[in-house]
Amino acid sequence: MLTQLLGVGLGIVVGLVLVxxxxxxxFDWSIALPFVAGSLIGMLLGRRIxxxxxxxxxxxxFALSMLAVSVLxxxxxxx
Length: 79
Description:
This protein is mainly α. Helix content is about 80%, strand content about 0%. It has three helices and no strands.
């Protein structure tokens, strides 16, 4: 089963590859690797706690965490 976090992680990797191939851009692995590591840790932890949490509650927690990250990114970009 493809988790939402795995889907996001795959989307990021595909985006980086497409930018590198078609635009000729490059990316800094010192920035990308923490995201990869965080995704892997999140997937492993999520697999352990997901069976203990009902579906709608898990989806709400994921949505709230994505909202928090979005607000943090916008806040940091506006400084």
